[in-house]
Specification:
Radius of gyration: 17 Å
Helix content: 10-25%
Strand content: 35-45%
Low-confidence stretches: 123-134
Distance between the termini: 55 Å
Order of helices and strands: HEEEHEHEE
Mean pLDDT: 84
Number of strands: 6
Largest sheet: 6 strands, mixed
Structural class: alpha+beta
Length: 134
């Protein structure tokens, strides 16, 4: 995974089953990983990576959309405020702004936090009852 710019390896995420992977022709082209309880006790998406050569093909969107197969409840993610494409992506993907923290990143850049409520893919989101169908 030479395209992965994050330090370290992904062994812990793989062993602990905290990663979803996207492949094209049996080659890993992206992944999303999370920490259980990693943000104020809530699950926290800490890595979303797509190979530059495979960007803008819906891979990140598919990975984020698949999170509801493994996570449920309120889930958080954060991103550097200067990462305009990433911020735009999160907003378009339905993530809700949750605030920011100064001092986490170099040069006192703001780290923006977003959240999304996940429903397990195997169960339907409760729907309002239509009184006329009774």
């Amino acid at each position: 995974m030479a395209f992965d710019s994050f330090p370290g390896d992904r062994i812990a995420e793989i062993v602990e089953r905290r990663m979803l992977v996207a492949e094209t022709n049996d080659v890993v082209v992206g992944y999303v990983a999370w920490q259980q309880g990693g943000c104020i006790g809530k699950d926290y998406v800490n890595k979303l990576v797509v190979d530059d050569a495979h960007r803008r093909r819906g891979i990140a969107q598919a990975l984020m959309g698949a999170l509801n197969t493994v996570l449920s409840g309120r889930v958080f993610i954060s991103i550097a405020a200067q990462n305009a494409p990433g911020v735009s992506f999160l907003r378009q993907a339905g993530w809700t702004p949750a605030g920011h923290v100064l001092g986490l990143l170099p040069f006192n850049e703001a780290e923006l936090f977003f959240h999304q409520d996940m429903w397990p893919a195997t169960s339907a989101v409760p729907k309002a009852t239509d009184e006329r169908s009774r």
